[in-house]
Amino acid sequence: MIKPILILVVLSINGIVCPPPMRQQAEQAQAQDNGQQPPQQAQATDNQQAQNTQQQGEYEGRHPGYQFAYTKYLEEVVKILESEPKFSERLRDMKEDEIKEGKIADHIDDLPKEVFDKLHKAKFDEIERLRKQIEEQIKLDGGAHNVKMPDHLDVKELDRFHKEDLRKLIQKTVADMNAMDDQRKEDFKQYELRKQAEEDHKLAQMAPEEREKAKREYEESEKRHNEHEKLKHPGSKDQLQDVWEESDHLEKEAYDPKTFFALHDLNGDGLWNDFELESLFQLELEKMYNETNPDDDMKEKEEEMNRMREHVMKQMDANQDRMISLQEFLTDNEAQNAQPPKQEETWQDLGQQKIYTDEELQRFEREYAQQQEQQHPQAAAQQPPQAQQQVHPAQQQPIQPVNVPPQPPAPNAQQPVQQQQQQPPQQNLPPVHHEPIQDHKKDPTYGI
Asked: Could you list the residue range(s) of the whole structural domain that residue 248 is in?
């Protein structure tokens, strides 16, 4: 059955805090389907349940989920609609794109009066929240010039909840979720750009010998990080069977898709959510990332997990509801079995991907260098004497004598004629008479 997008959104928001099912329940479901007695090898243990609960808690700590200003209102509307059997029945034959477009709203007109009374109250409460929020914003800004019209409810009819309210709520929620996903990817790109720019900037400030040593250390760190066992393709049968053997501690020959799905449906709702899906990738991620290893970046691990989840969702989630049902999982399993045997497919990790273009990096490094100059204009003057002598490599080259521009004579500071005659024409003034040189030449190697 196709679930409404709002219900799925709330499941993502709440993190779904439910006790994981017993391993025995998964085997009993399989045995009943096959008309057999459940084998003893797949019974759950207290340790397995505790591990699942711990994993869920860790996930919720890392992932606050999709949070909106209107989350409480969204949850209340979903709770009310979910309690009405008529509404759920009408969803069975609807396509997912129709639900996302809000067309399900056309089917609420004949809901019972008591359901609408609850929906009216939910809307009134949300309007009251918005009213207080707007009052605070006007007080803070000294006017209403920054107040925006809410677009997750119908403001033309404030006295009742009707189908336009549901349509707007669905469309706004879907748009906000997509925008948050896009922002996450952009934030990660900016993180990687800054990480590389900081490394290049640090190298550019070093003396040649120190720079070569730092470059070797950086390259060795990258090499150590990339020296790992190949990652299996997320969602492939080989990858899932590894979870069956190593995490579930079951025999490979006994692998059964229905049992596997039930074992990892931790909240027992018949669907795999984000957390349940991402928990399947931990074995692969552990091949590449170790929290105690300074060579491994945990932000990159998080993004790698997001990439795996999105890939498997695209592969299995036929109705695009951001969940994987048992039927979708079984359909994908059958499709994989129908393919001819082939060489084991591996996963191209972040180290093998190009997160940004060369042009994006060059532009970012220029902006980064400008920021550093603005934030630390006296950095060169504050360096210790030894560091001041280690001029930037681009300034040490004899073919670039213009790297240190001559100082203009100070106004109204004429020297006695006798002193001018005694000084050699090209003799430099004592260092104490020079202003600190702040405008260093940029290193052509790094562009910063």
From this structure: 5-350
